[in-house]
Design goal:
This protein is an alpha/beta fold. It is 47% helix and 22% strand. Strand 12 and strand 13 form a beta hairpin. The structure holds adenosine-5'-diphosphate.
């Protein structure tokens, strides 16, 4: 047993020796012993390597030699030993000094060593040189700091962090500049504040974070709200931030204000559209020119047959008409753009407007083999407006219906009265309108895919003219289609005229019946104009006197007692205004209807004529059915009519 025990002891000693040798040779750690009072007792290779002292130089010296003067002045070395004794172990990191006076960053572990009788024998001190790690850490810290300063000072991007709930956690200068909040105002508030109310209703903020969580990143463009409530067009990238274990710790958000870019894009688009438009315009103008030019060559041929001449001129007329329409449309567009579109306003029968529109569009409808199904109400509907402009609305719609229906088919035009509105529907069973195009269809230059539609011609301006004219008449227009190949319907609503609505209802078909025979005085210094109107009125069975100046009108009124006076305004000497005032003052029954028949159609002209005593104001040439309706008014309607029409023109 003893032998065994001996052998065991020997082994331990051997191990001890081996261990001591090992410790002595370790280079990466300074491992040495201190006496209970802190004097260096042993020194290994690592200690020599790290601290620069040879064993003979340092053994016997106090370990505070390794400390900075500041540490020594606060009594730190002794404090370390005290704590090691009290706690059984002490660990510290800090600057220590090498023999050559340079500093190194040390990790120090001090362990008290006891004898068997628990008497303190000294301390084991293990020191590591962590200067490199320290430098690396410091560099990282500095680079993080530099990065933070950089991010903080970036002006062009709002860069900020959200916590996992979406509350703002950091805020840079760009965020303040773009969104208007100072950091103190917004940190801690939820990022949904940057969204419009529609986006909030749609749950967009939550969705943004959801996508960032799921895909790591979410990108979006849209309107965002600044602190002052104004909107800006934002490009937003949200990135989910996760720690090393993959746990979500928040979000980084980078927002750019793209409002200016968006404006620039819009300008670029407008510019491109304009260029496309010009190219299309050249094409559209050239189209009718070629046949006209051919026609002219044909007419120059010697001995050409009469039938060929007629055919060629008719063809040229058609093409010329097409050109004129194009130019008219273009002028309208420029008037729309400059806000200078003018129109005359007078009571007109809707039937007249529709008839004109049908006359205009019938040739194309026939040429493409379609059939127009017209349905008008029995009672006439009168609207206040410009016959020419309004018929342009419906001819445009009818022409489009014909143009955008490929196979011969029916086209429907349906007119009805809906309370105080006239409702006009133009429907076709044609190519229809895609849901993408539909909302923009009334915008200038908007057309379906050109490559498909080029053959149909057109400049993409017809519908914008339609909309503008309808709106000028205080009406609305809408486009409906179930989609490609499903046909289309355009619905125009126009307010019914107050002036003649009542009359028109009490005298239905006023434009067909000639009405009672009336005594009518026609006054116009343009003899041709006076005579033709006179002839027309006589043909309708009225008793008509025609005079060509003011004094003659007064004289005639005196003896003739007209029920209705059709009076021109711009006459030399005595103007129509003077004549009307004089008539009202002395010469006619109060109920006599005085109608201005004039070239002046502006609102101010109407005002003036009403003030002078006129009841109605028609512009030349008068629309026959409107004239007929007025002539069918009950006797003595003059005064009353004046009030009604004033109302209508307000
Ligand atoms: P244009 O006919 O000269 O192109 P418009 O402004 O009249 O210009 O019409 C704009 C576009 O609307 C057309 O190019 C066409 O794509 C579409 N569109 C208009 N009317 C119809 C219709 N009745 N059916 C199908 N598409 C239509």
């Amino acid at each position: 047993m003893a032998g065994n025990s001996e052998g065991h002891e020997d082994g331990l000693q051997e191990l001890d020796q081996h261990f001591s040798n090992l410790v002595a040779e370790v280079r990466d750690y300074a491992i040495f012993l201190l006496s209970p009072a802190g004097y260096v007792r042993s020194w290994n290779a690592g200690a020599a390597h790290i601290k620069g002292y040879a064993a003979s130089e340092i053994i016997g010296r106090h370990f505070s030699t390794f400390y900075t003067p500041e540490a020594i002045s606060t009594g730190w070395p002794d404090e370390e030993l005290r704590r090691a004794t009290a706690e059984g172990r002490f660990e510290d990191e800090g600057w220590r000094i090498r023999k050559d006076g340079t500093q190194f960053w040390a990790n120090v572990v001090i362990t008290p060593l006891y004898e068997d009788d628990r008497k303190l024998r000294g301390f084991l001190k293990i020191t590591r040189d962590l200067t490199e790690r320290k430098h690396a850490e410091e560099e990282l810290r500095q680079s993080e700091e530099r990065f933070r300063l950089l991010v903080d000072s970036v002006q062009d991007y709002a860069i900020f962090r959200l916590d996992t709930d979406g509350r703002v956690a950091t805020w840079n200068a760009g965020a303040e500049r773009i969104k208007g909040y100072a950091a103190a105002e917004i940190i801690g508030r939820h990022f949904s504040e940057f969204f419009s109310s529609e986006d909030l209703v749609a749950g967009k903020p939550a969705k943004e974070l959801e996508i960032a969580q799921r895909d790591g990143r979410a990108e979006d463009e849209g309107w965002r709200v600044r602190k002052d409530g104004s909107l800006f067009w934002a490009n937003v990238v949200v990135t989910a931030l996760r720690n090393d274990d993959g746990v979500l710790v928040g979000y980084a958000k980078i927002t750019r204000d793209m409002t200016d870019k968006r404006k620039a894009d819009a300008l670029e688009l407008a510019d491109r559209q304009k260029n496309e438009f010009l190219a299309m315009l050249a094409h559209e103008l050239r189209n009718p020119l070629a046949p006209i030019s051919n026609g002219l060559q044909l007419l120059k041929l010697p001995g050409i047959e009469q039938a060929v001449v007629r055919e060629a001129t008719e063809m040229m007329e058609r093409q010329l008409y097409h050109l004129v329409r194009l130019v008219d449309d273009l002028l309208d567009v420029s008037r729309i753009v400059t806000g200078k579109m003018q129109y005359q306003k007078e009571p007109v029968e809707l039937a007249t407007i529709i008839r004109r529109a049908v006359e205009e569009s019938q040739p194309l409808i026939d040429a493409r083999g379609h059939e127009l199904m017209l349905s008008l109400p029995a009672k006439s509907i009168i609207v206040d407006g410009d016959v020419h402009r309004l018929s342009q609305v419906f001819s445009n719609l009818l022409l489009n219906a014909a143009k955008y229906t490929d196979q011969p088919n029916q086209i429907w035009l349906h007119v009805e009265r809906d309370d105080a509105e006239a409702v006009i529907r133009v429907r076709d069973a044609g190519i229809g309108i895609t849901p993408e195009l539909l909302p923009n269809i009334f915008n200038l230059f908007v057309q379906a895919d050109h490559s498909l539609d080029h053959a149909r011609g057109g400049l993409g301006i017809g519908l914008s003219i339609v909309k503008r004219i309808v709106e000028m008449h205080r009406g609305t227009v809408g486009a409906f289609s179930a989609g490609s190949g499903q046909g289309s319907e355009f619905v125009v609503r126009l307010p019914v005229s107050h002036a003649l609505a009542a009359t028109a209802e009490t005298t239905p078909h006023a434009h067909h019946a000639k009405g009672p025979r009336r005594r009518i005085l026609v006054v116009d210094d343009n003899a041709d104009a006076a005579l033709t109107v006179g002839t027309l009125l006589r043909a309708w069975g009225h008793d008509v006197r025609t005079v060509f100046n003011g004094p003659a009108a007064l004289e005639e009124a005196h003896s003739f007692h007209p029920e209705i006076v059709l009076l021109d305004i711009g006459m030399p000497g005595m103007s129509g205004y003077d004549v009307a005032r004089e008539l009202r003052a002395h010469l006619i029954d109060p109920g006599t209807i005085i109608i201005a028949l004039t070239g002046y159609g502006r609102e101010s002209d109407r005002e003036r004529s009403f003030e002078a005593g006129f009841d109605y104001h028609l512009t030349k040439p008068p629309d026959p059915s409107t004239l007929e309706s007025l002539l069918a008014l009950p006797t003595g309607a003059g005064r009353r009519g004046q009030d009604n029409l004033r109302l209508a023109s307000e």
